[in-house]
Amino acid sequence: METQASSASSGDDTPTASTASIGDWATCAADPGYRAAVLDLLGALAYGELSAFERLAEDAKLAPGLADKAALARMASAEFQHYQLLHDRLVEVGEDPTQVMNPFVEPLESFHRMTAPSDWLEGLVKAYVGDAIATDFYREVAVRLDDDTRDLMLRVMSDTGHAQFAVDRVRQAIEEDSRVGGRLALWGRRLMGEALSQAQRVVAERDALSNLLVGGAHVQGFDLVEVGKMFNRITEAHTKRMAALGLAS
Amino acid sequence: METQASSASSGDDTPTASTASIGDWATCAADPGYRAAVLDLLGALAYGELSAFERLAEDAKLAPGLADKAALARMASAEFQHYQLLHDRLVEVGEDPTQVMNPFVEPLESFHRMTAPSDWLEGLVKAYVGDAIATDFYREVAVRLDDDTRDLMLRVMSDTGHAQFAVDRVRQAIEEDSRVGGRLALWGRRLMGEALSQAQRVVAERDALSNLLVGGAHVQGFDLVEVGKMFNRITEAHTKRMAALGLAS
To answer: What Pfam families would the database entry show (chains A, B) (predicted)?
Structure first.
């Protein structure tokens, strides 16, 4: 698919995330390539939220006590509210949410199959690391999109309180038994590897999306150099988060 | 435990649900027996909501498509919002929600173990029938309690949209294959039987609760005759609901 990522793009190569407006959704989505790419992003994000709901609800079953169970159920419910925002936007722009999410079901389910947590702590690390990588990625992309999509995505990416909960529980477990740290550090590396490999696969299969991210046509400096830098920033943030958990990445 | 269910009770035997006020929480809860009984009701209800969240999230995994999955996740999330209301009230009256819910974990988990759905349709029927019986019971009790508890319980019992969804799906499945109806009718009877047997067990083990419901001390006509009538009404409503599903009860 031949696309022009944004007719309103300034086309400069500023290396840091820019917040300069490229226009609203109505203006930018007149370009079919831009529209298709943003629909892909919203679809992937929506299914990601629905999937996060399911995973957190699953983790709630493994919770060692009622208070932890309720805390996870609360986070699952927050993820669902985020899904609802995306669902409503897709309907608003005349799309069937199910159709838009469909291409991302298989890659995400593959990721979950490859990284099924074997216990409560692995589940916590997975949710923490996985959500954080996804959040970093979408935030980086969001600031380069039209105003309406950016505002929606930043709202959806708002904190669900999960991070601090996971950090507290994992640090405590490592304090109680330091061997837990080694096992979870390995687990964190495996998660990062699988996440990158599935993300790569999705981008390779979705023309409009890859054109938006790395194509000749770019939005606000989205060229290969910038994408490389973006992945470096995401990897650095991952390293810091693993350290916050008390784990070597 | 010797209790006086309510010092403010009028003590009459009106057979229908009365909405006459017996006072607010502060007045009624001065009686330790009343307070203990209401805490039991709120604890059972709170764990019921948390458990409904888990069960619906589990059913979402069995859903035949993305739209159904999202619909169940939406209902699970609504149940969690209800849990949150009860949690916040328990904290407000100086109680630890975990402590108050604890006595009801085992009976509810027993019920769920005895009635694990083997497929998507059994899950739908269970959620529909189970929620409805619980809702009928709590609504009957709520109108006899202090104003604050009554208002909270009626809010928590508000419709989550589950009923219509389950009715639509089950009726459609029976239309497609009438043998499904026979199997699900048997399933509905088993659910009602298990629900009654667990409810009986809980009431027998909780002195304050049984005093409130059937004890010598009673709130607004809660004597044995009235309790019998209440169970008749709940059973009749169950029969009607099963008919709405296209099932003989």
So the answer is: MiaE_2
